[in-house]
Design a protein that fits this description.
The structure holds two protein chains of two kinds. Chain A is built from twelve helices and 16 strands. Chain A is an alpha+beta fold. Chain A folds into two domains: about 1-50 and about 290-425, no CATH class; about 55-285, no CATH class. In chain A, helix 2 runs antiparallel to helix 8 and helix 10 (about 340-380) runs antiparallel to helix 11. In chain A, about 40% of the residues are buried. Chain B has a domain at about 50-75 and about 100-235: Rossmann fold, CATH 3.40.50. The longest helix of chain B has 16 residues, at about 190-205. The chains are: A alpha+beta, B alpha/beta. The interface of A and B includes residues 337, 344 and 427 of A. Chain A: One of its GO terms (molecular function) is transmembrane transporter activity. Chain A: Keywords: Cell membrane, Membrane, Transmembrane, Transmembrane helix. Chain A: Belongs to the ABC-4 integral membrane protein family.
Chain lengths: ~425, ~250
């Protein structure tokens, strides 16, 4: 009998049910699209903001100790303290290892560059870097990936005999690519007699006065194998909030664990400090805060749209239900006179709306997923990273649809059940 | 002193002992907009099991208020109303719903059949809200009122008299001790009035307690006793005939 009544309510009030269902469908479509985008927008914004460089910088801890005489920092640029390149493998062991999307270690050294058939440039700043170094999952990382604004004429170094020079140097010493040269440490015997300059770098900053080589080349020239003095890291992080700025060592164990297990730039930096001995990891606030601000604003907008869509759906359901219940007051009065409890009648109406919400919610989920896919492609350079269907969202969206349907229909159902059944049956209500 | 009822079962039983409905100084007052109206005023009477009582009175006399209370749809604001020995004032709303499903069968002037359910399903609806549906029993109930052959018809396919008979079958399906009929022939033509009147007579003969609100003197004359209402006051007429059987 219950199913019969349920079926008839849909068959007889098709238009009302359709309107209520449509409202739920539109609401859940918007929510699904917003949720689906929200789950991937962090990755995309991180990718977009990656052009501004790394968001975590790792340096040797000893380098942080200022050496000042009379207020002047006399510590050399390299600081004389090094990290181990081999320790970078430990980055794969930290809790948020999968959030690290780019690593660029460097070793700065002083070099003399002798151009064959030309001048010799002394005391240049040479930088040893990774170029196309394998990261995880088949992706490559290194300086070019972390400095996407760098433009190269020619190609990046691939081995010990290959160099890239900055545009300013190239102009000053009339360097073209490819060009042969000699490379040496000033005042030292060790050097490479025959190197080839394969590329000229345009960076728009002081890197245009530097000489770039593979990290291994710099380590060998410097006589410091395995040494690096700085690592730039790009990591996907959660926007910084007040909790992120807490010092984890002053938190209770439970709160510390929560802090530790959230992908704040601070907590990733903390984990890097734990993993690499003698390392000091700090977030680069400018990049991190830009990313956080953009994400916060977009998330806020998405929540607002979702809430507005659900609220509108709730009102539409409420209006449709008010009319539907009004039409069925006679039935309600009769059911009450037959001994049906208020709960039994409410259950019947809630079951109708629940069923409607499940169906409309499921369709809304499919429509919203399609919308998110299309929007994702339009917003982010024509390529959508949003999955066509995210099954995790289905129960969430259906649950939201149920909440909207139940909340929207409750006022009408309550009002109908409060009415005097005898008055309804007499037609006086 | 309690009235003595003539019954075929026990000559010495008092009216109070046999009462299936007992009102003691029952009043019902409605308040609203600063004023109060006493729709029923200090009503005291009883109806014994198996009795057929007609409630008469002009519009606004308190008939509907009395019927609502006898049908457990409303409760007195003063006095005691007992149905089948149970005091309605002591019951929670849920208990009252359950009690109504068990004890009262409603027969309406407007029939109040659900238009999209067949005659059989309309009868089964009362079973559904009482306990569980049983098509065989529902069909038997329809056959009892001579509507077995129309079980699958929708109310719109039935005449007024036939709809009222389905309504009576629905009232009977849970075997309630009291049938509460509100103008049962008020919407029927002469021929159908006669059919329904005969049906009520049969039900009375088989021991059902019938409380019937009516304006029709002919229908009222069928009852054993009349309870007249005027301005909320009750005037009980003498018992019109013997109670056939006690049905509790």
């Amino acid at each position: 009998m219950f199913l019969r009544l349920l079926y008839e309510s849909f068959a007889r009030q098709r238009r009302r049910k359709l309107l209520a269902g449509l409202a739920i469908l539109l609401g859940t479509t918007a929510v699904t699209a917003m949720l689906a985008l929200a789950t991937t927008i962090g990755d995309r914004i991180h990718q977009e903001l990656a052009v501004y460089g790394a968001n975590i910088v790792v340096t040797p801890k000893a380098d942080q100790l200022a050496v000042k005489i009379g207020g002047v920092d006399i510590k050399p640029a390299t600081g004389g303290a090094y990290l181990k390149e081999s320790d970078l493998a430990k980055l794969k062991t930290i809790f948020w290892a999968n959030n690290i999307t780019g690593i660029s270690p460097e070793l700065p050294i002083k070099v003399d560059l002798s151009i064959y058939g030309g001048a010799t440039a002394n005391d240049l700043l040479g930088i040893g870097l990774w170029f196309d170094h394998p990261l995880t999952g088949g992706t490559m990382t290194g300086a070019p990936q972390l400095h996407p604004w760098w433009k190269i004429e020619g190609s990046w170094p691939k081995g010990p005999g290959q160099l890239v020079v900055g545009r300013a140097l190239a102009t000053k010493y009339n360097i073209h690519v490819p060009m042969r040269a000699g490379l040496a440490i000033p005042g030292a015997q060790n050097g490479i007699d025959d190197v080839v300059i394969y590329g000229i770098l345009d960076s728009g900053d002081d890197s245009e006065n530097k000489v770039f080589m593979t990290l291994n080349t710099a380590q060998n020239l410097n006589g410091t194998p395995d040494a690096i003095s700085r690592v730039d890291i790009s990591a996907q992080t959660k926007p910084e909030d007040a909790f992120a700025r807490q010092d984890p060592d002053t938190l209770t164990p439970a709160k510390r664990e929560i802090w530790y297990c959230r992908p704040y730039a601070n907590s990733i930096a903390y984990q890097i400090r734990e993993a690499i001995p003698g390392a000091d990891a700090q977030q680069v606030r400018k990049v991190e805060q830009s990313e956080g601000t953009v994400l916060e604003r977009i998330s806020g907008l998405m929540w607002l749209i979702s809430a507005a869509a659900l609220l509108a759906a709730g009102f539409a359901v409420s209006a449709a239900m008010a009319t539907a219940v009004l039409e069925r007051r006679g039935e309600i009065g009769l059911m009450r006179s037959l001994g049906a409890s208020r709960t039994a009648i409410a259950l019947l109406f809630y079951a109708e709306n629940g069923l409607l919400a499940i169906v409309a919610g499921a369709i809304g989920y499919l429509a919203g997923s399609a919308l998110a896919y299309t929007l994702g492609a339009h917003i982010f350079s024509g390529v959508s990273t949003t999955h066509a269907l995210n099954p995790v969202l289905l129960p969430i969206v259906v649950a939201l649809a149920l909440i909207v349907a139940i909340a929207g229909s409750t006022p009408s159902i309550r009002a109908a059940l409060k009415q005097d059944p005898s008055a309804i049956l007499r037609g006086d209500a | 002193m309690a009235e003595v009822v003539t019954t075929s079962l026990n000559e010495n039983q008092t009216r109070a002992e046999c009462a299936v409905i007992a009102l003691e100084h029952v009043s019902r007052e409605y308040t609203g907009r600063g004023a109060s109206v006493r729709a029923l005023d200090d009503a005291t009477f009883s109806i014994v099991a198996g009795e057929w009582v007609a409630i008469t009175g002009p519009s606004g006399s308190g008939k509907s208020t009395l019927v609502n209370m006898l049908g457990c749809l409303d409760r007195p604001t003063a006095g005691t109303l007992k149905i089948d020995g149970a005091d309605l004032a002591a019951m929670s709303p849920t208990e009252l719903d359950r009690f109504r499903a068990d004890k009262i069968g409603f027969i309406f002037q407007q029939f109040h059949l659900i238009p999209y359910l067949s005659a059989l399903e309309n009868v089964m609806l009362a079973q559904y809200f009482h306990s569980m549906t049983d098509e065989k029993e529902a069909r038997a109930s329809l056959e009892r009122v001579g509507m077995g052959h129309r079980a699958q018809h929708l109310p719109s396919e039935l005449s007024g008299g036939e709809q009222q008979r389905v309504c009576i079958a629905r009232a009977l399906i849970n075997n309630p001790p009291i049938l509460l009929a509100d103008e049962p022939t008020g919407n029927l033509d002469q021929a159908n009035q006669k059919i329904v009147a005969n049906l009520l007579k049969d039900l009375h003969q088989t021991g059902h307690t019938i409380v019937m609100v009516t304006h029709d003197p002919e229908m009222a004359a069928l009852a054993q006793r009349k309870i007249a209402l005027s301005h909320g006051k009750v005037f009980c007429h003498p018992i019109g005939g013997p109670v056939v059987s006690l049905r509790r």
